[in-house]
Design brief:
It contains eight helices and eight strands. By secondary structure, the protein is mainly alpha-helical. Among the domains are: 126 residues, no CATH class; 96 residues. It has a two-stranded antiparallel sheet with strand order 1-2. The protein has a two-stranded antiparallel sheet with strand order 3-6. A two-stranded antiparallel ribbon has the order 4-5. Strand 4 and strand 5 form a beta hairpin.
């Protein structure tokens, strides 16, 4: 998850303020619906709640704006969703109900609010059972992930919107949303890096995301702790409760996602290795060219060994530049799992790595003592 500035994309016309927009019209209809529902429940408290068919948030211009803002990636896990399924337009604050708060009608007044909408993949948005790691020392072997270090855990946001203090919950349109003690990260409101860190291991780069320590420390995995217990557990252990809850609710350590992020890190490892080897050969070839000087040159230019070494040098420089460009693409904001990639680069190569790992004195550092 990376920080996204929502202001980078204009509010879609269908959700813009003004009486003519689809969003404004729908808000008036849902207000009337909720008033009618309240009156009906007063007469019959056991009456089954009648849901409202929200539609404005599904408009084509909303989906287009979200895809542009988030580079076609899920707001939570940073995976590309377009190759396998359409965008899920996710409501950060759920529109029709709130899990664990049975009397809450949902944040219906925000169902068509641009600032409450995020693009999501199916696995982050819908409640499903997922194989999930429970230990940070899990490794990839010849047969894949170490499944003995994983359990099947139900994750996916659905209608979840937990708060650290239920007394701060907003119940209607007049409530102050800013007073809510939120426990789920929103990349357009929060800085995910303040709450999440990635397990760092240059030898076996298994990309687990962890709750960030509030003091000294390098993160904690809370895969087996129930959401309701995480706040107190994180407080005692000294880790970000918002980070821990977000990881569990969004399923940011589900097996397939960990494997996909790890493949990116291993690609970075390979690119760094190639750059190191090429730099070594380039240095030796360029030294040889310098020693040859003008020897062997005829009237038509370089000949013999001189021409051969210059050709080799030219091709190696081109290859090195191409690998550096690919490295930069792997850690760019529009690349999948860029937060994990940048964290790995920062930990083992240095902040200047996107400009060319070896130019920053590169090469993965020694394995940290975890």
């Amino acid at each position: 998850m990376i920080r996204i500035e929502r202001s980078a994309v204009a509010v879609p016309a269908s959700l813009a303020e003004g009486r003519a927009s689809a969003g404004s019209k729908e808000l008036k209809r849902v207000e009337a619906h909720m008033v009618a529902e309240a009156k009906a429940r007063e007469k019959d408290p056991k009456r089954k709640r009648k849901s409202f068919a929200f539609a404005a948030y599904k408009a084509a211009d909303v989906k287009t704006a979200l895809e542009e803002l988030f580079h076609g990636k899920c707001a939570y896990c940073e995976g590309f969703y377009s190759s396998s399924h359409p965008i899920d337009v996710e409501h950060y604050r759920p529109k029709s109900e709130v899990e664990g708060v049975p009397d809450h009608d949902g944040y219906w007044w925000l169902a068509m609010d641009w600032e409450n909408l995020l693009p999501s993949c199916i696995d982050c948005n819908r409640r499903r059972y997922q194989k999930t790691p429970t230990r940070t020392d899990a490794v990839f072997g010849a047969d894949g992930f170490g499944r003995s270090h994983a359990k099947t855990i139900k994750s996916g946001k659905a209608a979840a919107f937990p708060l650290a203090d239920e007394e701060t919950r907003a119940w209607n349109r007049d409530s102050e949303l800013k007073n809510e003690d939120r426990l789920l990260l929103d990349p357009t409101r929060d800085k995910p890096a303040d709450h999440l860190v990635f397990h760092a291991d240059p030898i076996n780069p298994v990309s687990l995301v962890l709750a960030k320590a509030t003091g000294k420390g390098d993160g904690r995995l809370y895969a087996e702790v129930a959401t309701g217990d995480l706040v107190e557990k994180a407080r005692i252990d000294g880790f970000s409760a918002k980070g821990a809850v977000s990881i569990n609710v969004y399923g940011l350590n589900r097996l397939g996602l960990v494997q996909a992020r790890t493949k990116v890190l291993r690609t970075l490892q390979f690119l760094v290795l190639m750059l190191e080897r090429i730099e070594e050969v380039v240095s030796r070839v360029d030294e040889r060219i310098a020693r040859l000087g003008g020897a062997g040159r005829g009237a038509g230019g370089a000949t013999g060994d001189d021409a051969l070494f210059e050709l080799v040098s030219s091709r190696l420089h081109q290859l090195r530049d191409a690998i550096r460009a690919e490295f930069r693409r792997q850690v760019a904001p529009d690349a999948p799992y860029s937060a994990a990639a940048r964290a790995w680069v920062s930990a083992f190569i240095g902040e200047d790595a996107p400009k060319g790992p070896t130019s920053a004195g590169a090469g993965p550092r020694s394995r940290p003592g975890r």
